[in-house]
Amino acid sequence: MRVPQSHGYGSNRRSPVGANMTPMIDVVFLLIIFFLVSSHLARQENHLPLDLPIAASFDPVDLEKMPLTISVDAAARILVGGNVVTADQLRPILGDLLARSGADAAIRIRCEGAVQYQYVEPVLREAAIAGVTDAAIAVREESTP
Length: 145
Prior knowledge:
The protein is α/β, with parallel strands linked by helices and 145 residues long. The protein has three helices and seven strands; from the N terminus they run αββββαβαββ. Strands 4-3-2-5-6 form a five-stranded mixed sheet, sandwiched between helices. Strands 1-7 form a two-stranded parallel ribbon. β3 and β4 form a beta hairpin.
């Protein structure tokens, strides 16, 4: 009795089985690009030319929290990520921060030393309304002569 040879799926020749790594490599490169761009924007935001207020004592920034930096320049404009926003536009930004970070949500306010408190208060008010309770104002150390 002779066994018939089958052709097709039941044949002895099998195609190699393996995972296609191309989509995973694409995703990794996209993540790398995303983190490079976002870290560049964060560094750029911290280097806005502001003459920070002077303080005799201060707490250093906790780098693990990575707070959202909100700047108030000499013209009393509010800047987030280098973009000018109004106090009303802060609400969804702070809401998104709270949604992403939860109870660890934190903001850091950088303002020109000569800016009056009436221009900083709307930022603090919007943070309180959004539920962000960790707010710090960036200062520079008092220089000793």
